[in-house]
Amino acid sequence: MKTFLKYFFTGLGGYILGIITVIAIVGGLISSLSGGFNFGKAEQTELKSGSVLHLKLVGNVAERSEANPLNELIGEATGAPMAEAIGLNAIRNGLKKAASDPMISAIYLDCGMYEGGLATAEEIRSALLAFKKSNKPVFAYGTIFTETGYYIATAADQIYMHPQGMIDFNGLSSRFVMYKGLFDKLGVDFQVFRAGKYKSAVEPYIQKELSDNNKDQIKRYIELLYRYQIKNIALARKLDQNQLWEKALSGSIQLPADAVNAQLIDGLAYQDQQSYKQLNKKGRVQFDDEKLYSFTSYAKDVDPYAYSENKIAVIYAVGEIVPGKQDPYSGIGSETFIASLKKARKDKSIKAIVIRVNSPGGSALASDEIAREIELCKKEKPLIASYGDVSASGGYYLSCVADSIVALPNTITGSIGVFALLTDVSELFSNKLGLTYETVDLGSMSAGFRPDRPLNEMESAYMQRMIDSIYHDFLSIVSRGRKLSRTAVENLAQGHVYTAEDAKELGLVDILGGLDRAILAAARKAKIKEYRVVELPKKEDALSKLLNGDKSSDEQAEKIALKLGISVRQFKDFQNLIKLTGPQTYFPLSVEFR
Question: Which residue, 35, 418, 535, 591, has most beta carbons within 10 Å?
Fold first, then answer.
């Protein structure tokens, strides 16, 4: 079957290449006939003196940019570049370059529809604030502002919005989808084994309501996250923090006029009326539509570092942790990630390593395999961990042995605990499908863990013993990596989830800051002043990705979920449920911040 699929996709790749060749020819003809006609593109196609970069953020922002190979090739063929999603790495690098680029005069920010993680928003906002130190302005305009989209916008000198727009400014909530009722109707039950009273990843599958312990910890961390956000908004807008908190929680900011009256935004305007004029009034920049240039195009493949023989490797660990090989854009495969670590360890030009972790966890076995390789790397060169939106459970397991841990205040971390979720579909099989199973056993446990019946007493005891053993190892590695007593780790573990601010107080995190701060810490520990940054694993070129038929799991999940009429997050919950093989160190991704 695998051989068939290999030849099928190879043939499909050739077929697609044939189509692209035709597109290239037709595109060339159209281009020559049109005399370079701009196909309705609103922004300039060439960078000019005084250019204003248009940074548009919609939906989620990934850690790294990943070009769609079809878009890239069709764009080159037709001369009409296709829109690409921009990653956090390109945003950071692009803003660094733009700050010193004499061709760039300002940033026009359209981030109202941002719906990504809180720590990612913090990284983007910090990069914009750093850009402003070059004495170049940032102007934000939006028709709709999400809670985190508005937070990013407060880095701008001025914020304007559409007169009939919408702004979400009413606090954070954490929403979970509970699947217990659905599985009851299907005749599916789950047997749960866990270590840690706060280990809540299994609750949506076995309960219709969250436990009191879980509710308490969720309320704690979303309040800390929002207080941090309100504090920074108040500083940026020169407002009273306590009053701003009350306005948000009372829901008094409902209409655009309310936002103006509360001084959250500077005014209401149609984009063609006022947006560019406001920047002109500052006297530092003059521009119009003709000077707008796509930030995505500008930041593509930017390297803001000067050439140096010394390198610091940033190795990305993003997504769920699984054993074996995995596309690094859609998860953390232990073999794939370890290969990148070994490459960095053996490369003498790489003086230090930063692992960028944005993961809710996953396989306990895979997490342990990676942690072992990190300890080996650390013996040869400095290794710093940098946390993104989430570095919890397995994400914390694999990285807690780093020399130092750097996390943003609104990073979610901790969740030191273990669970196993075994499916019992006996009712579904017998009562609804009419299926029965007969097994002849040679030993008391020779039949293994079967989904057609619940575990017996001996099997249940074995599973709990295994979970307890892995939890013991988890506590030991945290104790060793963080240089904390076993008792101290036991007290702060139990699957408890923390913000990085709390985690720092508890000794689970060393420094509050973003990826730049982690890179600086790595350089200092390596005792180097000049260096450049290389990212691992390296991107595949567009042609290789096309021939490999590669698509990220997020992209696939989004398309399938849309067809089924359910949310992408719910669909990914079911995907993850299928992948839960063996004991898991996992933080529930089903949580949504609203």
Answer: 418
